[in-house]
Design a protein that fits this description.
Elements: H1 8-15, H2 20-27, H3 31-38, H4 46-63, H5 67-70, E1 78-79, H6 84-94, E2 98-103, E3 106-112, H7 113-122, H8 132-135, E4 142-143, H9 149-158, E5 161-166, E6 169-175, H10 176-179
Parallel strand pairs: 1-2, 4-5
Antiparallel strand pairs: 2-3, 5-6
Helix pairs in contact: 2-3, 2-4
Length: about 180
């Protein structure tokens, strides 16, 4: 549980603009119990405290920023047979650092600046013959537009981007840079 102290109840209730009665209704407890806990006149039973904390955690999840709110809607793709030179040109002209790779309309991998540099350093003489499929890494995670910020932070620790998709259609892309400065 993220919440650690009974003293957080009042602070979080105010953060979510709830009255004591509204919080009590969501938690299935009485308003007077909330009032007594907040005024430190009563220590609730474990079960009652747990109900209140669970109600507050549900509010935290529903209030959380969603993928659809921070995603970039314009997504550039490389095709599996695109030349590495073409991909480098796209990356430079669009000012991006990675491209999802498509095969038959499905995401099958990702090409990053780092992967390109590693491939060129390993085979500088082959730069003119390299294709996306020779350079790409594993496909990035794909999430729904309703995915919360906590999940996105976790996924972006392991992947340079996350794609946002709905009903099999890519709707957007989120990179680590998109999360910088978010609270």
């Amino acid at each position: 549980m993220i919440l650690k102290s009974l003293e957080n109840i009042r602070k979080l209730r105010k953060k979510y603009n709830l009255t004591q009665k509204e919080l009590a209704n969501k938690a299935g407890v009485s308003q007077s119990l909330i009032a007594k806990i907040e005024s430190k006149k009563l220590d609730p039973t474990f079960t009652k405290a747990q109900l209140i904390f669970e109600a507050l955690e549900k509010l935290q999840v529903t209030e959380e920023v969603k993928a659809q709110e921070i995603m970039q809607k314009k997504v550039y793709f490389a095709e599996v047979n695109d030349s590495l030179k073409t991909i480098i040109k796209i990356i430079k002209t669009k000012g991006i650092s990675q491209l999802p790779v498509l095969s038959n309309g499905n995401v099958c991998g990702i090409i990053t600046e780092g992967a390109i540099l590693r491939k060129i350093m390993a085979n500088p003489e082959k730069i003119n013959s390299l294709k996306a499929e020779d350079t790409m890494e594993e496909a990035p995670p794909i999430v729904s537009p309703k995915t919360g910020l906590r999940v996105l932070f976790h996924l972006l620790q392991e992947s340079p981007i996350v794609l946002v998709s709905e009903k099999g259609q890519t709707k957007g892309i989120i990179s680590k840079a998109d999360l910088l400065g978010l609270n």
